[in-house]
## 1
Amino acid sequence: MTKIIGIINNKGGVGKTTTTCQLSYMLRMAGKRVLLIDADSQKNSTGTFRAKSEGEATLYDCLLAPDKYRVDIEETIQHTKYMDIIAGDELLDDPSALSKDLQSGMLRLKNMIDNSSIRDNYDYVLIDTHPVTDMILYNVLMVATDVIIPVRAGTYEAEGIVKILKVIKEVKNSQNPDINIAGILFTDIDDRTNITLLGRTLVQEIADQEKDLDLKIFDTYIRRSVAVSESQAMRVPLFEYKKNSNASKDYEALLQECFGLDVDYSNAIGI
Amino acid sequence: MARGNFKTGMSAMLENSRKGIIESSTKDTSEREVYKGYNVSNKSNDSEQNKGTSPIKERKIPEKTTSTKPEESASKTLISSSLESINKELDSKMDKLKEKQDSLEKALSFTVDTTKDNKTEKKVSIPEITKETEIISSPITIDTSIIDKIENKEPIVTKPENQNVPSTYNKSKTPDYEHDIIVGTNGKNYAVIEPYTNLTIVRDVKTSTGTTKEKVIHEIDGITMGRKGESQPKKNCTFRPECYDYVDKAAKFYGKKFNTMLDLIIREYMLNHEPQWYTPEN
């Protein structure tokens, strides 16, 4: 069964895109068939894997475009050397087209995927999201089988967790009762600071309180690494840029913890 | 997860953070209000049909929990020093604002002389221009050079040589140069945009199957193109990919965003409505 995983958090800068890119890349290295959907108007995942959003059909064209101009979701899949990608688009900033009919608007992505061969063609669909609670996020949550919530260890980030959990609960209690929170993933962790300890304590307390969601915090956490920023500057996947960085090793550990998979270096691209 | 032993002061920070989380967990989110708004508008159209259309169940507003107060003793020093610096900053900002307000009042002051033949005459007293008033009284400059640039360097609005409008455009008559905006491509392919037209801008995109499709880039409401206060029947027009490319090229040339460039063309046309806007193509 295809796993559709949304990487979500309505807080920006917590590592959603990095996590999406690294997990997608490593799932490919583990020999899995992966489709990455960039639902972020900043389209950084698209750029990282050399997909195009200019002159090519993007998620906007199948999700938000007026009926007359809308294309089939499979027509928007770009086949890059890394993996298959549905590119992000700046026009995703305005999802008001989905609000015209709330019911069908929220389920549009799910309906499109259900009516395509995506579930047959891919083992994993990873969806990168933007840090806004809007109709696009609801679309992602309606179709997702699992969500991963990256979070930095800080007070504001902990408050952000509370908000995103509210949204997930709404979805779980309505249209997508099977949605599973795979786990909360701490990113950009510097164990030397007390603030990190404080943030992690707060998130743990929140997780303890949300018993009905059965929240899990991944044992693996992503350590702060300058290689992450450097790889972004180079616009290449982190693992390709520096596979021995702390963050790369941590994502490798996450792959094992989250999916029970190991990377196969013979599948590596660009290293 | 290990909770560890916090250093002095960290306990207070933890307590304060907890308070923030409790507040955010009990406060209704603004996003939710947006969707409530849509529900309301739906109900006004057809209450039965739209009843319960929202997949998100009605949220029960949680009762406000009594938040525990942070231990004052531990955080008092930190808070008071923060407040002090914030107050100082506010005071300085208020002083600056007051200065600006005074300058503005001075700049906008005028006297009314009603003694002359019962006619009202406004005597505008021109304030002494200081560095400060100069900045305040002219915060926005209108860039008219762009029009000159358009006219001199690149024809944006073009009177096409061939006045027969291609059938592919949503227009079946000869352009009305008094009322239409003509955006041309080399004088041969062009689109006609009328005032009060709902404009849909499309451009070509490739799909993975190799076909080319049209993509909607921007939609402009016809009313926004009209003069303020006027209302006209809306018409529909599609701004075709070939013209998109033309304006896109011009936008890049002038360092403008596409929509800014197009809005500029439309706005200037609506403001001036003069023939010279149709730059002859030489």
Note: The interface with chain A takes residues 1-4, 6-7, 10, 13-14, 17-18, 20-21, 24-25, 29, 31, 35, 38-39, 42, 53-57, 59, 200, 202, 204-209, 211, 213-217 of chain B (CB under 8 Å).
## 2
Amino acid sequence: MNAINPTSLKRRSFIYRELVKLGAAFGEVNGAAVALNFGATREAELASARRLALADLSVLPHAGFKGRGTAEWLTAQGLSIGPDSNIAYGQAGGELAARLAPAEIFLLDSLAGSGALMQRLNSAWKWAEAAPRPQQGYPLPRQDSHGWFMLAGEFAPEMFSKMCGVDLRRDRFADGQIAQTSVAKMGAIIIRADRKVKYGRAHAAYHVLADIASAEYLWSCLLDAGEEFGIKPVGLTALRDLEQ
Amino acid sequence: MSDVNRLPAPFGRLIDRSETVSFDFEGRTISGFKGDTIASALCANDQWMISRSFKYHRPRGVLTMAGQDANTLVQLADEPNCLADKYPAKNGLKVKAQNYFGSFDNDMARVVELVHRFLPVGFYYKTFNEKKQSWSFWEPIVRAMTGLGAIDPKADFHESYYDKQYLFADVAVIGGGPAGLAAAQAAAEAGAEVILIEENVALGGSLGYARFDAEGVRASRQLGDFERVLAGTKGVEIMTGTICSGLFSDNWIPLIKGNRFYKLRAKSIVVATGSIEQPAVFRNNDLPGVIMASAAQRLIRLYGVRPGRKAVILAANDDAYGAALDLIDAGLTVAAIADLRPTVPQTPLVAAVAARGIEILAGHGISEALYSAKTHISGAVLAPVTGEGTLGGGGKSVACDLILMSVGFSPAGQLLHHAGAKFGYCRQSDMFQPVELPAKVHAAGSVNNVYDLGAVIADGKRAGLAAAKDAGLNVASVPAAITEKGNVGRTHPWPIFPHDRGFDFVDFDEDLKYHDLINGIADGYDNVELLKRYSTVGMGPSQGRHSAVTSVRIVSRETGVDIAGMSVTTQRPPYTPEKFGHLAGRVFDPGRRTAMHHRHLELGAQMMPAGVWWRPAYYGGKADRTNAIETEVKAVRENVGLIDVSTLGGLDVRGPDAAEFLNRMYTFSYTKQPIGRSRYVLMTDNAGVITDDGVACRFHDEHFYVTATTSGVDAVYRQMLFWNAQWRLDVDVANVTAALCGVNIAGPKSRQVLQKVCTDIDLSPEGFPYMGVKMGTVAGIPARLMRVGFVGELGYEIHVPAGFGEALWDELMEAGKPEGIRPFGVEAQRVLRLEKGHIIVSQDTDGLTNVWEADMPWALAKTKPFFVGGRSTEIMGKMKLARKLVGFTLKDSGDPCPEECHLVLKGEEIVGRITSAVKSPSVGKVVGLAYVHGDDSAPGTEFTIKVQGGRRITGVVTKYPFYDPENKRQEM
Amino acid sequence: MKVMNCPLNGPRNISEFAWGGEVKPMPDPATMGDKEWAAWLFLEANEAGLVREWWCHVPTSYWFIAERNNITDEIIKTYPATELFNTRVEFAAKAPSGSGEKK
């Protein structure tokens, strides 16, 4: 990935200007520019990601399906989806299928961001032709409805408690659990998605999915709330490297 | 003068003698140590008078040293009403006393004392109830004389950062005294996650300052034990310097620490807030030098401050003797102990005091505190008790500069009150006690009427285990309630000794004397709640902490109602005043921005709020507003314009029942709507009131893309889900408002511009007619295109995934350069649509407008079985119309353009209002929409409009559209 | 602040919820007289005691039903709307006479 300018591509994160101001170096993923790092050394960004860091993943592939038959159809497409709502189920390629409701799935790509699963599903989905019509749910434009941030590091739960009324501490909110709640007075989806290292160790990390139109607001709220813990923006590289 | 009253270590466990601080008090430089409060530093410097009283401007000094009284409210440069006995002494503070005129030491208004008989109880009621005009005479006097601190608008206010945080715990323990410490330890040992909240800077409560044994070692030993055990116990988070300001439903606990407001949710609560030492009533009991025994002990042990030189103690319990020993240890002389009890039990503490040769006068009280200096007491008159509240005459004067009151306690039950606990009077202890607690709330220690230290610790342990059990932890057994409480003989039932010459204060905050209450009761306010409101007893800043029990006792005796059946007045949150900053916290205001937001700013747009969104009002400087809007209107009418319509609501309605669902939600019929076409949607609620509108675009037999208004879409979405939760149709509704952003490219040259970047759609009038909808790409971006006519020109609405929004804007602006494309804002759009007579729901409709009033029966499908609001619409259709929305112009073209909400009159009666009006650039005159009387709606009818300044002008009902009435331009 | 148990999302602060009114079955609009219709529309029983209400969890737009005691302010139970509404509701086509029937 060569260094690129976010405006050279047609798909853009709603907060690319903020990332530029913070000194981001960008690479192309999913037809858009994603911040790879913010100019610090690899070790420094990794240290931030272990302590408290915020990353913008908004342009990474994410998608969704909703409506009667959604889970059945996705299962038929090879996804592994458990029965409980508000759990994010891991997929073979490292993607997450977040079951928001019995008939609603939010799909998040792995941090590799190839988009292969989303592409396959979107092209497999067709309007059913005739009765008896199979129930299949409908695709949702999740790529564009929700900004996608990752908050990583051991201080993340404490920081969340400054803007969210759900107890997200690690011993109360398990890996893979989902909270659909209010964050800084916005509706938001929080998914605990630890970055796993060898021997069962893991670094705390949470996906934050919220109204794309308030992405700039939420980004600034999160940075503000994290200030007392020394929050830093980090790029995709540090988040990927957390698992090494 | 310096800190002449400072005691050597080990007195002063809270101060750090290695660091001095100095601040200004009324022009004096006061020096103290880190850890001092303003009040402790003042006392160390022999400055006993700290403020003046509210009504009579009497000198006042420390009373409790616990932040429980209003005597020590002081004024800081940027903050009024600070508790001097809590506020930390800091370098550079500018502290002033409150409630004085002229000089603090020589307050000119103290003459009010001389005329106090003319300020009777119920002054406000008596003076202003019937003679209301007298308020104009009294107001300036009352306003200047009363009130507490002042806010100085010219002060150098510093901005502060306040914020909030949620906390979670199994068990919240409020109060870090012996009961709270024992409760926290027991709950944590049972496996609970505990948060222990202490208002003061250090844990310990009475263990930090009180004396439980003659040797004076038990308290510190016990505190040390707790500290050691807690340090080794997992699961206790300690928050000191933290005020719990209330208890609310489901154990919701607000906490204030510094500039942060915490919202703690606990599974169960232990309230161990202790008790409040109560004053005695005697003449001049309010003057500096008369303090609670516990306040003297706090000064000595917490701050290392000698509370005086020579003391008299008014006693009614064993605690007084512990305080006496402390005074002796601190080097004071104890001149005498007047003990209200006829015989003094020979406890170890009493024996220790007696052994030091102190005079103990059993069966004696204080009839009066004497003063020679204007600002401090100089003696006490001791007299034998002859009956309940009476003392023998004569009496013996004893010189002293300190009087301690140690006559009893009252539970600090505010938080339990908030939680809904009921209190009753305990005859054995002569104190109120909690008798009924809400579920999952426990009381422990002296707030629970348990006083003996061993019993307090046992009670704390019991409550801690009970709370852990409530929180779902496995607790083998919870001990039974404590029976040996050590509460008998702690509190005197009548430490009230009124004096013929008055100034025997019951309420220090409000300057209420014994006879004020007696007179209030005599005026007929013979119930504590009524008396409180009439006399204001208990309504000052300390909220009755020291006056409530005394006033209950007085009411009981005066009315003959048994005190056992009475209660103190209701206590409500907050426990102490909260700052607006704490309540506001960090303001979360999530405004929504479209993908093109920054492009608008770069183009010089003036942004305006539209619901929760920000939209461009117009492009250009504020001074150039009118011209900018007219130019934008002209660009659309004559050339081509581009507007960001991303904020418009968008709903994907999909499924076999999609058309049936829309039939039920909207007034029109959608079953036969062709694919590739759009149709108007009008929503009414169950009462037939218009709530929203938009268009439904059919992209597939089972897929409608429905638009909704910017501010209405969330409610529309919620209503759709609400109804289908009942109907169970096979349809899915998704709110895709933010996921799709959009522009409307409008004007005669819009097709010419669009076809440069849109090559996969036939844009010809035949291929893509008016009201047609298509999917395709624009500049390579997947798009939904609609030919709609809100502004009345040829135009295309283009909706694309939000991530591509900025690129779409850029591509269209670039493509339109040769044609001179111009961005236009909401203001121009409003003019354009008004020229076409399109209504805006919630601007041209209100909370009552129905389909008939809005003159839109054309939007009703006649034959379908049901739609929400259909039945009500049908009923209202049979009724006479009170008002109707009409188009209008002005009779006299010289008249000014009316504004929104100017009134429409019929005779002198208000019958309607202007909803929209503008001087139309396209038709060259004023056009608008208005509600007129139902009888006046025929075109050509004249009606009266009352405009600015009360002027009346004449409007003429006019058919609309005002512009291009045959709608040819939008169909080009 | 009270806590309400959302059947989908679990216990949450009541500030995450919106009230949707009492659950009161709609009478057949086609056969109901004007006055009776108006009474159903505008008059609430407003009884003290157990009430059954619609509530919506706002962040997920999830509608459910809550039963609570409005005297003690206790939420007795909450459950999905499907427990009360589990069959498709139809409205009969308008007969020429103007009377219809809900199946």
Note: The longest helix of chain B spans residues 453-470.
## 3
Amino acid sequence: MRIELQRRSQSSRLFSFVSPLLALVLTLFFGGIMFWMLGKQPLDALYSFFVEPLLEVWSLHELAVKAAPLILIGVGLSICYRSNNWNIGAEGQFTIGAITGSILPVLYPEWHSPMILPLMLVMGMVGGALYAGIPALLKTRFNTNEILTSLMLVYIAQLYLDWLVRGPWRDPQGYNFPQTKSFVPEAVLPEILESGRAHLAIAFALVAAVALWFMMRFMLKGFEVTVLGQSERAGRFAGFSARRMVWFSMMLSGALAGLAGISEVSGSIGHVQPTISPGYGFTAIIVAFLGRLNPLGIIASGFVLALTYLGGEAAQLSIGISDKVSRVFQGLLLFFVLSCDTLIHYRIRIVTQKLRGGAAHHA
Amino acid sequence: MLEAILLTVITAATPLVIAALGELVTERSGVLNLGVEGMMIMGAVVAFVATQTTGSPYIGVVAGITAGAAFSLLFGFLTLTLVANQVATGLALTILGLGLSGQIGESYVGQPGIKLQPINIPILGDIPFLGPLLFRQDLIFYLSIALVIGIHWFLFRSRTGLKMRAIGDNHSSAHALGINVIRTRYLAVMFGGACSGLAGAQLSLVYTPQWVENMAAGRGWIALALVVFASWRPLRVLAGGYLFGAVTIGQLHAQAFGIGIPSQFLSALPYVATIVVLIIISHNRRTTLINTPASLGKPFVPER
């Protein structure tokens, strides 16, 4: 028995909607098996993992808090991946954005002004964009593989943050805790509703997603991204520059990751500390693919992945499963998304009898 | 003193060399598997758990190799049978590996492990200086050297190796010549997985005999960079691996001596070195183009 693929003449519209859902169902199924192997009631576990967090107002706010960075980073990455630029260092750009955005509230803690927050957000975006500019520069100038350089820069950014908050940025009155002074109220990203913690970042995320959807759908730039991503040669004939696209896509995604970073620090944490992200930059890669690299799809997939984080925390409390389960869920989900995507471009046939010799020569 | 430092360099370099050699074979067949980090960490955790359960680190080594190969099969099925995107699938393998290994190893955190003991080769082990360095090592070190020589021979002196390189350079022509592209690639991917698993086993049985979450700490990615650095040649992988081992150990010693540079900056050195090395190697477009397997990362669907 073997599996045979037949290319569809046109990619299937039906399956481009069904495949992410199918991937979700498969993930839930295998997740249930995993819970069963851990000695838990699968349905109860799945319920407390994926449903319970949706039943209370405060946890819906948490969902928005966690979805915001995932969507912001995810839509940026989708532009990169569409244009065939493999930025996998968003976690580093997130970190650097958080650092550059925090310069003002950390170094000028006495400065109370409504100006400070917009400045912080802009500086965070600039920091993230410049940091993503490093792999872009290396790729365009030295032909260096951006996958490896952007990833190495993640480790470097995290070590730099660690040094900052244990060294020059540490709060002298902080009982030796490795963290900065708390931000002044003017430097804290405001909450959107009275009822909970969700802050402006989720609004930024939705605006960014819709704007990039508009760009990809209606603007020449979006067309340029798609053409260059599918065939650099065709793009060149159309007068597009692959080199400029490297810069554009990397710096755009870097800026969005930087915005996510400073929003997280300013809105959710309130100071800078050695760990500021539970791996948002990497999870956003899954978000981008689950959303089929479509900015509107990414809004939905951002909430799904945010739920895996929340579910992990909830399941740890209610049924005593380690929160590492959420990482497993995220990995499984990406696997199933990628395999189900095959259905969009290919017809799959399972061949049970062996082909006769020579059959391979017939068209 | 020098001997002790060189010994630690060898221990730090061995996992890099082994993982990079495996990936080199995979990439020579035209497949780019970015999941080295994930396969490595799975090898590390499974090797550790098997050793703790059975009491024998040798069973641990076998278990680590098996885990790496089995895990790579997932990647193989997706990219070779279902022609999924290789970059994305490799990332998926890494993400899943990091999560799964944390889950498997959770109850083993902090347990003292059993170290894989050195094997003293008689007579050779008594040579002053070189003896302790090269002939009183553990099994995995000997395997790493055997792999370098074996893979060099396989790629450049054997018929099967020639066929595999042909697939990596032009899968359509190789297919037309009647070489089974998919089967060869499956084997190459599994070999890469087995090597990554072995490298992981070295981490949890030799380098630091215990289980720490995320203990591969980017070594899988450095191994990927090493393959580029070595321009897909096994002997150069050996040289590159030892260079990186030296950088890693050098910065650790510098931290211990406290030479006034913050430890975080020293810890960042291997990653900075990786970037610098990639720049030096890649900036000459022509040689990169000649050395890179031409169908690397490209999907292949056999026509029938």
Note: Chain B has a mean pLDDT of 89.
## 4
Amino acid sequence: MTGTRTAAGKWVPSTALKILLCIFWLFAIILPLIRMLSTMATVNVANIITSARFLRALGHSLAVTAVATIISVGIAGLLAWCVSRTNLKHKAFLNTILTIPMLIPSISHGMGLIIVLGANGWISRIIGLNSGIYGFWGIVIGSVMYSFPVAYLMIYDVLHYEDGTPYEAANVMGLSVKDKFFAIALPYLRKPLISVIFATFTMVITDYGVPLMVGGKYITLPVMMYQDVIGMLDFGKGSVIGMILLIPAVIACIIDMANRDKGNANFVGKPYYVKINKVRDHIARAICIIMIILILLPIGSFAVLGFIKKYPIDMTLSVQNIEQAVHMGALKYLGNSLLIAVVVAVLGTALALFNAYMTARNKTKLSYVLHLMSITSLAIPGLVLGLSYVMFFKKSPIYGTFAILFLVNSMHFFASPYLMAYNTFGKINENLEDVGSTIGISKWGIIKDVILPQSSGTILEMMGYFFVNSMMTISAVSFLASVSDKPLALMITQFEGQMQLECAAFVSLIILAVNILLKVILYAAKRGFSKIN
Amino acid sequence: MDKLEIRNLTKSFGHSEVLHDISFTVRDGEFLSILGPSGCGKTTILRILIGLEDAESGTILKDGVDITKVPSAKRRMGIVFQNYALFENMTVLKNVQYALVKSASTKDTFDKEKALEKAKEMLELVGLSEHLDKKPRQLSGGQQQRVAIARTLALNPDVILFDEPMSALDVDTRLSLRSELKELQKRFGTTMIYITHDQEEAFAMSDRIMVMEAGDIHQIDTPQNIVDHPADDYVKKFVINNINTKINSLIQFARTEGQDS
């Protein structure tokens, strides 16, 4: 290959851009990660991972995560079946309600649980549960609350797009329900289910919000990491735990990639036909209603708690907590959060689109490298990314400014929106750029006038994903935020430390409200776009 | 007069050479089919001719001028793809109008209004006047391909290249589109190079056929001469036998139909 511009004119600019992106990834993900891992050379790893405290935390983490994952995937599977394999009405509405928990930070789930089932929880008082739900079961329930919507969405998608023809063939052949389950459903679901299980496992084991809130003395690895780094500034120990937390995420990522590549043989299928069965529908409806109540109970409780003077001593309604939160800077921090969320939504989406264009529509060997680099963030838990950034960027000018928060959130949440764009771009007619270049329209012209307009729905979803997650994240940012640029969600950890549950409840409520509002705006914008197109 | 003269083209992907020293000419105003099985290099020739890919060596002359290093848009050629490559977010009319306004490859420049008139005129020619405000996905495959043809013709290129434009269409649509395409060619006098792996299609439409296999040209001649004097065994097998089989099955079909009624 020569370096000059050829008649086909493809090589020079796109390869240069790809190299530039690879260098970016090197500095944004790979080098910080290496920096963190290299710290282990300076500490006695063997001592740390054989210490009683570490082993106890590891045992706790594995125990709660295993149990929570089983329950979470079980509930998610049951609900996905209830919605996708029945004739229930308002399925879009059900999907919305069932995924509301995805709009608040994990720590808020822990808080909701305390309000309902804590030592002074209102249900605890009714049923006489005096000691409250701290420790193992508290973490399990909180983690399930926080992780099952993600598992639900994944399983629902799989069931929703399952080809119905094998079932129709089986019906004609007269196979029993049992046979159909083992011969068709299970083989089909096996691979996606493995992905779901690993994704859920990773999500739960790396979360520190729930165990910090309801764990009590039951310390898990992420909580230990948080305490060691934030409380004792022990970066070495933090790095070792970070490396351990990387393991399940890396495994999940590899399994997911292996599954994804093979599972893409999209032949033309027929949607699953749901037969008429009133009894089945009634049961499914009952299950959905019970689950919705269970989901809304803690969320509704902290919505009320935010307006109560001092639970459970003084139950009068008041705006005192709001005043208190505002006094402590809630409005300023809300402003910070909105700024971060908006900037990350715009920059993250732009970067993801750019990256996806280079990997999905300009395929070379370098694209594959770039693709792998773009999805590495899938395998890096927020706490680990945050710690890596602290160590790598400490002496850089962006440290302690908003810039590092923009960057860390864009990277932390990059993989999912990137994959959305990658899939959408991959499906758009492959010859558009060629047509453009034969009639004299530049690549950028085709991108701007044809490809981006065709992807408007995806772009809105990507922005929504970045926004919502930036609003509620407490993991990566917890190591990086300073007093002046702290996002709102971190006030919850602060209030938790000061035992001001009511204020924390109010802050969670603001985050929920902002995220719901954003979802509504996105929904309206999408409808607007689909009308234009 | 030769419209195009191709001299000694070679091209490899990695270690495998897909075109071995190919030379041929295309006459002004002719309809030339390139016929061969998939993977024989016919699409690669097309992409090199229009400048979407570079040859390793060889020269392309158009009207006697070397265009080997000229960018696609300046070659005054158009291409129609199998998958239409329409702008899905624009209406049928907008597809053609947009190409006219943005194009850097026509002699004339088009402002929006002039382009609109021209687009309407071209779409009427391909029988789509009633579908101007529809989106491509609301049209049948044959109609979408007509939009693509209108969009290409509107820019008034000297040569139009077709990359298996009908292989995604059903038999009836193919038959009608074939004759329409020939009509359009007569009307505009445009030189057309048409890639296909369908022997029948090549014989029905072409002034000359170029038979290819694995990066080599076996024969380039009129349909009549290919039938009468096939150059080698490959041409006999791939072209003549296939045609005979098709004709035989048609005769068989006609006979059984005749008996039924």
Note: Residues 385 and 392 of chain A are 10 Å apart (CA to CA).
